[in-house]
């Protein structure tokens, strides 16, 4: 037997127990189950009295604190600790999702010349800046089902003069019908839908007054 053949056999033999060990370890490593992805819906209905906007709007991504700037669905059981629903995630990070739904809601009015994200390079007449201050389920002692709390603080900024035209805070709450994640998501959709409607109506009305 040549030295080369002997060396190859020894290397192959040495690799066998190592491969077995890796396979054994792989079987012991816990595999996280895939998360269910959830999305919320834009607002589609508005009062006929909603003013027409003959100007362009950029909707910037809302700022959110670290505990809310995530794909995870937040729940508070006390004022000091944020937890998350297991095996459930938003389809986008929460502030990004809210930005998407705001843009779609403005488009659904059919009464604005142009609206888009800052990244599309839209030359805007107004920018909508906002802070997503609350976007979570809250389950207090004694509550049977969680309450959804959404707070969006908004500023309308006229361009190009970079002047804050007005600011407003929109807060909505909704109680989940039961403790299932689907019921929680439906309550999120209910509360956020009202915040979207309030924000769109406020921007359209305020922008018209300033443009005039």
Summarize the SSE layout with pairings.
Blueprint lengths: L2 H26 L7 E3 L14 E7 L12 E7 L2 E10 L3 H16 L2 E6 L8 E13 L8 E12 L4 E13 L5 H31 L1
Parallel strand pairs: 1-4, 2-5, 2-6, 3-6
Antiparallel strand pairs: 3-4, 6-7, 7-8
Can you describe what's shown?
With 212 residues, this protein is an alpha/beta fold. The chain has a single domain, classed as ABC-type transport auxiliary lipoprotein component (Rossmann fold, 3-Layer(aba) Sandwich), CATH 3.40.50. The protein is 34% helix and 33% strand. The protein is built from three helices and eight strands. Strands 1, 2, 3, 4, 5, 6, 7 and 8 form an eight-stranded mixed sheet that branches. A hairpin with an 8-residue loop joins strand 6 and strand 7. It is elongated, with a radius of gyration of 25 Å. The N terminus is likely disordered.
Keywords:
single chain; 212 residues; alpha/beta; Rossmann fold; eight-stranded mixed sheet; 3 helices; 8 strands; elongated; disordered N terminus
CATH architecture descriptor text: 3-Layer(aba) Sandwich
Coarse structural class: alpha/beta
Please write the CATH class name: Alpha Beta
Largest sheet: 8 strands, mixed
Low-confidence stretches: 3-32
State the end-to-end distance: 96 Å
Discrete helix count: 3
Concise summary:
This protein is of the alpha/beta class and 212 residues long. The protein has 3 helices and 8 strands. It is 34% helix and 33% strand.
């Amino acid at each position: 037997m040549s030295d080369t053949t002997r060396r190859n056999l020894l290397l192959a033999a040495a690799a066998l127990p190592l491969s077995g060990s890796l396979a054994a370890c792989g079987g012991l490593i816990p595999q996280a189950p895939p998360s269910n992805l959830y999305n919320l819906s834009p607002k589609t209905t508005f009062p006929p009295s909603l003013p027409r906007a003959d100007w362009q709007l950029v909707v910037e991504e809302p700022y959110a604190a670290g505990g809310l700037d995530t794909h995870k669905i937040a729940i508070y059981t006390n004022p000091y600790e944020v937890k998350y629903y297991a095996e459930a995630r938003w389809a986008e990070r929460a502030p990004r999702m809210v930005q998407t739904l705001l843009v779609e809601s403005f488009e659904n009015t059919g009464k604005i010349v142009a609206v888009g994200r800052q990244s599309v390079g839209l030359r805007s007449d107004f920018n909508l800046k906002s802070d997503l201050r609350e976007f979570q389920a809250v389950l207090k002692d004694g509550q049977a089902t969680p309450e959804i709390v959404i707070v969006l603080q908004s500023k309308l900024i006229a361009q190009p003069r970079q002047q804050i035209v007005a600011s407003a805070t929109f807060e909505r709450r909704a109680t989940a019908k039961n403790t299932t994640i689907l019921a929680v998501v439906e309550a999120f959709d209910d509360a956020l839908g009202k915040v979207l409607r309030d924000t769109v109506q406020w921007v359209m009305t305020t922008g018209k007054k300033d443009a005039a």
